[in-house]
Amino acid sequence: MIRLASGEYRLYFAGTPVSEVTDTTASRGDIYAATSTDGLNFTMEQGLQIAGSASRRVSSPDVLALSSCGTRLYFREITYDASGLPVYQEGCSYCGNIGSVLSNQ
Hints:
Blueprint: E1 2-3, E2 9-15, E3 30-36, E4 43-44, E5 56-65, E6 71-80, E7 86-87
Antiparallel strand pairs: 1-2, 2-3, 3-4, 5-6, 6-7
Protein backbone atom coordinates (compact mmCIF):
# COMPACT_ATOMS: atom_id res chain seq x y z
CA MET A 1 0.00 0.00 0.00
CA ILE A 2 1.19 3.49 -0.78
CA ARG A 3 -0.03 6.96 0.09
CA LEU A 4 -0.62 9.10 -3.00
CA ALA A 5 0.05 12.83 -3.38
CA SER A 6 -3.73 13.37 -3.14
CA GLY A 7 -3.68 11.89 0.39
CA GLU A 8 -5.51 8.74 -0.71
CA TYR A 9 -4.10 5.25 -0.30
CA ARG A 10 -3.66 2.73 -3.11
CA LEU A 11 -3.45 -0.97 -2.28
CA TYR A 12 -2.10 -3.51 -4.78
CA PHE A 13 -3.08 -7.15 -4.27
CA ALA A 14 -3.08 -10.46 -6.13
CA GLY A 15 -6.03 -12.73 -6.73
CA THR A 16 -8.19 -14.61 -9.21
CA PRO A 17 -11.89 -13.93 -9.85
CA VAL A 18 -14.02 -16.56 -8.07
CA SER A 19 -15.84 -17.26 -11.34
CA GLU A 20 -12.57 -18.56 -12.82
CA VAL A 21 -11.48 -20.87 -9.99
CA THR A 22 -12.35 -24.56 -10.00
CA ASP A 23 -11.08 -27.47 -7.95
CA THR A 24 -9.25 -28.83 -11.01
CA THR A 25 -7.38 -25.71 -12.14
CA ALA A 26 -4.72 -23.62 -10.49
CA SER A 27 -5.57 -19.97 -10.11
CA ARG A 28 -3.74 -17.86 -12.67
CA GLY A 29 -3.25 -14.86 -10.43
CA ASP A 30 -3.82 -11.27 -11.44
CA ILE A 31 -2.76 -8.03 -9.76
CA TYR A 32 -5.47 -5.51 -8.90
CA ALA A 33 -5.58 -2.12 -7.17
CA ALA A 34 -8.01 -0.40 -4.84
CA THR A 35 -8.06 3.11 -3.36
CA SER A 36 -9.11 4.48 0.01
CA THR A 37 -9.37 7.83 1.74
CA ASP A 38 -8.91 6.37 5.24
CA GLY A 39 -6.70 3.29 4.67
CA LEU A 40 -9.47 1.01 6.00
CA ASN A 41 -12.29 1.04 3.43
CA PHE A 42 -11.24 0.43 -0.17
CA THR A 43 -12.90 0.75 -3.57
CA MET A 44 -11.68 -1.48 -6.40
CA GLU A 45 -10.19 0.30 -9.39
CA GLN A 46 -11.44 -0.70 -12.83
CA GLY A 47 -9.44 -3.34 -14.70
CA LEU A 48 -6.27 -5.23 -13.96
CA GLN A 49 -2.87 -3.77 -13.21
CA ILE A 50 -1.12 -6.93 -14.44
CA ALA A 51 -2.86 -9.97 -15.93
CA GLY A 52 -1.86 -13.57 -15.36
CA SER A 53 -2.68 -16.43 -17.71
CA ALA A 54 -2.82 -20.22 -17.82
CA SER A 55 0.95 -20.30 -18.39
CA ARG A 56 1.94 -17.31 -16.23
CA ARG A 57 0.97 -16.60 -12.63
CA VAL A 58 1.68 -13.23 -11.05
CA SER A 59 1.60 -12.59 -7.30
CA SER A 60 3.17 -10.74 -4.37
CA PRO A 61 2.87 -7.15 -5.60
CA ASP A 62 5.02 -4.58 -3.84
CA VAL A 63 5.02 -0.88 -4.64
CA LEU A 64 7.81 1.61 -3.95
CA ALA A 65 7.68 5.39 -4.08
CA LEU A 66 10.40 6.84 -6.29
CA SER A 67 12.13 10.05 -5.29
CA SER A 68 12.07 11.28 -8.89
CA CYS A 69 8.30 10.85 -9.41
CA GLY A 70 5.53 8.31 -9.20
CA THR A 71 5.82 4.72 -8.08
CA ARG A 72 7.15 1.42 -9.37
CA LEU A 73 5.28 -1.86 -8.94
CA TYR A 74 7.28 -5.08 -8.54
CA PHE A 75 5.79 -8.56 -8.55
CA ARG A 76 6.63 -12.26 -8.57
CA GLU A 77 6.13 -14.25 -11.76
CA ILE A 78 5.92 -18.04 -12.15
CA THR A 79 5.67 -19.55 -15.61
CA TYR A 80 4.56 -23.08 -16.47
CA ASP A 81 6.12 -25.52 -18.93
CA ALA A 82 4.17 -27.44 -21.60
CA SER A 83 3.24 -30.18 -19.11
CA GLY A 84 1.82 -27.62 -16.67
CA LEU A 85 4.65 -27.84 -14.14
CA PRO A 86 5.80 -24.58 -12.53
CA VAL A 87 9.15 -23.14 -13.54
CA TYR A 88 10.60 -21.21 -10.60
CA GLN A 89 13.54 -18.88 -10.71
CA GLU A 90 15.78 -20.12 -7.89
CA GLY A 91 16.28 -17.56 -5.13
CA CYS A 92 14.45 -14.86 -7.02
CA SER A 93 11.90 -12.92 -5.00
CA TYR A 94 11.74 -10.15 -7.60
CA CYS A 95 10.93 -11.59 -10.99
CA GLY A 96 9.46 -8.70 -12.91
CA ASN A 97 8.15 -5.17 -12.88
CA ILE A 98 5.70 -3.12 -14.85
CA GLY A 99 8.63 -1.64 -16.70
CA SER A 100 7.46 1.93 -16.43
CA VAL A 101 6.72 4.36 -13.69
CA LEU A 102 3.09 4.40 -12.60
CA SER A 103 1.26 7.66 -12.13
CA ASN A 104 1.19 9.04 -8.59
CA GLN A 105 -2.46 10.01 -8.94
